């Protein structure tokens, strides 16, 4: 039956809004991509965003030197390509400009400052109930900014990077120097001359170290495990693109072997510099454990030249010092935790067996985009922007199909009823 079934008076809270179409939670690239595909097909929606702008991860929580790692054709969102004059690897600012243009082009106007506190499927009425709080108190005069949205479809687009991961270490509170997460790092400008411990060797850790070098700081990079580092380009071609082409013809283990062969030709043996490779190949590891290989844009050369020093796992901190598992102790001025992120879905999505405890859909790629009862997940395939775009297209198609079916029925039987439903 068409979108909103009649709820009993008892089940409707005082401040409640029935939504004609899906509610999309999150106005990052994933949420925008779903919204654009729906707009393109004439399906109404609302987007809820806890921040005060679109793509806050990109606008507020990334460093200045950030460029997209993959070539532009893989990072553009559905239905609107990047401008022709964008370089092969667009900068962070160019990507933000594109997203602003994208939102404008598809008339996507998220409801900003609206944080989803909980979402649950109400079996009785067969609808989703999404409770939010508006941090500006904008919705009400009485200061109670809580609102409940009621909808038939719920699209989770809150991202793989919703919360920072900061491990606990003995003695960190007595360390005394500056301690931040990489999401707060903008540039090495404020670290000139400092000895900086960068914890983590993912793409963030590697690039922060490189940036610190460019600002004459002295980075020490904590590498506690094996890691796959690949050159961003191989013989002038993007490594990612090459992998995509090879995977069309060859099994993944063989593509891994080829990529590792190229990596060896470019970097040589990295073990003597403290970087060992996992026994599983980079693509296989990505597929099985979701671990992203690092795409190198110059860090390896700085490790080889000794400008970036690789250190093992941390044992403890003490005032002005870090001690490592091999017993060595070094003086440091600052610490940057480039220790990654986690999904926040378990903190607000209730009673769903679609997501596992780690906040990712239980079904692995490519089946993790659709749950039951109108629930969808976009951008959780651990496949970056290309993965999010693919999810978005599938989700929108699925909703459009149902929407059309239901509006057809609604037109026939419930035309009057529909006009009574509050629409956003
Ligand atoms: C430093 C960095 C660089 C990256 N570079 C690349 C790259 O070059 N290429 C690539 O493919 N990927 C890259 N990524 C991965 C990145 O996560 C994706 O590109 C992209 O941002 C994912 O989009 P998203 O919309 O799924 O998630 P996000 O961009 O994180 O958007 C999720 C949105 O949901 C909102 N939200 C969360 N919880 C709630 C809530 N409870 N209520 C309301 N709103 C909520 C957030 O505020 C946010 O706006 C990078 C990540 C980082 C951290
Ligand atoms: N230019 C770009 O495109 C770009 C730039 C930055 C980030 N990104 C993307 O953003 C996402 C997040 O990347 P990220 O680098 O921030 O996070 P990440 O890939 O999750 O890497 C986190 C790193 O921290 C390490 N770590 C975690 N806990 C630790 C501990 N207690 N002690 C020592 N090390 C610890 C991890 O090591 P273990 O492996 O041992 O757990 C790993 O090396 C990824 O998808 C990445 O590709 C892209």
Give an overview of the whole structure.
This protein is α/β, with parallel strands linked by helices. Helices cover 29% and strands 20% of the residues. The chain has 2 domains: 14-162 and 342-415, FAD/NAD(P)-binding domain; 165-337, FAD/NAD(P)-binding domain. Helix 6 (239-249) packs antiparallel against helix 7. It is globular, with a radius of gyration of 24 Å. The two termini are 19 Å apart. Mean pLDDT is 92; it is low at 1-13 and 415-424. Residues 66-69, 167, 182, 199-205, 207, 222, 224-225, 292, 313-314, 338-341 line the site of NADP nicotinamide-adenine-dinucleotide phosphate (NAP). Flavin-adenine dinucleotide (FAD) binds at residues 25-31, 48-51, 55-57, 62, 66, 68-70, 75, 115-116, 157-162, 204, 344, 348, 379, 384-385, 388. Belongs to the FMO family.
Task: Provide a compact summary of the structure.
This protein has helices at 29-40, 56-60, 72-75, 92-105, 203-214, 239-249, 252-267, 282-289, 299-304, 384-413, 415-419; strands spanning 16-18, 23-25, 46-48, 114-122, 127-134, 146-151, 154-156, 163-164, 178-181, 195-199, 218-222, 229-231, 233-234, 237-238, 294-296, 309-311, 314-318, 321-324, 329-331, 334-337, 341-342, 375-377. It is α/β, with parallel strands linked by helices and 424 residues long. The chain is globular, with a radius of gyration of 24 Å.
């Amino acid at each position: 039956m068409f979108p909103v079934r009649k709820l009993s008076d008892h089940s409707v809270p005082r401040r409640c809004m029935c939504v004609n179409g899906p509610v999309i939670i999150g106005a990052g690239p994933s949420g925008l991509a779903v919204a654009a595909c729906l707009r393109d097909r004439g399906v109404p929606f609302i987007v809820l965003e806890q921040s005060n702008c679109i793509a806050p991860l990109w606008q507020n929580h990334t460093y200045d030197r950030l460029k997209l790692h993959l070539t532009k054709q893989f990072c553009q969102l559905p239905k609107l390509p990047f401008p022709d004059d964008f370089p092969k690897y667009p900068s962070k600012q160019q990507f933000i400009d594109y997203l602003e243009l994208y939102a404008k082009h598809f008339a996507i106007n998220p409801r900003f400052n609206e944080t989803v506190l909980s979402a649950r499927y109400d079996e009785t009425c067969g609808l989703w109930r999404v409770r939010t709080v508006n941090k500006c108190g904008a919705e009400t005069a009485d200061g109670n900014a809580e609102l409940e949205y009621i909808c038939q479809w719920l699209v989770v687009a809150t991202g793989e990077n919703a919360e920072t991961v900061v491990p606990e270490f003995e003695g960190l509170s007595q360390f005394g120097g500056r301690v931040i997460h990489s999401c707060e790092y903008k540039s090495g400008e404020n670290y000139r001359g400092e000895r900086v411990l960068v914890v983590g060797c993912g793409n963030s850790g590697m690039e922060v170290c490189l940036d610190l070098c460019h600002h004459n700081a002295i980075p020490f990079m904590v590498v506690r495990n094996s890691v796959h580092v690949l050159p961003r380009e191989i013989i002038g071609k993007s490594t990612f693109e090459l992998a995509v082409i090879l995977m069309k013809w060859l099994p993944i283990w063989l593509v891994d072997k080829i990529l590792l062969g190229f990596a060896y030709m470019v970097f040589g043996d990295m073990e003597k510099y403290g970087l060992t490779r996992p026994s599983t190949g980079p693509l296989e590891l990505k597929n099985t454990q979701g671990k992203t290989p690092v795409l190198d844009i110059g860090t390896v050369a700085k490790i080889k030249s000794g400008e970036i020093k690789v250190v093992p796992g941390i044992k403890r901190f003490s005032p002005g010092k870090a001690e490592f598992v091999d017993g060595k102790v070094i003086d440091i001025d600052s610490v940057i935790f480039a220790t990654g992120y986690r999904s926040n879905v378990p903190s607000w999505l209730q009673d769903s067996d679609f997501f596992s405890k780690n906040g990712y859909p239980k079904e692995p790629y490519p089946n993790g985009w659709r749950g039951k009862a109108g629930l969808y997940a976009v951008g959780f395939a651990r496949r970056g922007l290309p993965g999010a775009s693919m999810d978005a297209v599938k989700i929108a198609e699925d909703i459009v199909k149902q929407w059309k079916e239901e509006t057809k029925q609604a037109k026939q039987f419930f035309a009057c009823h529909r006009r009574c439903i509050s629409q956003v």
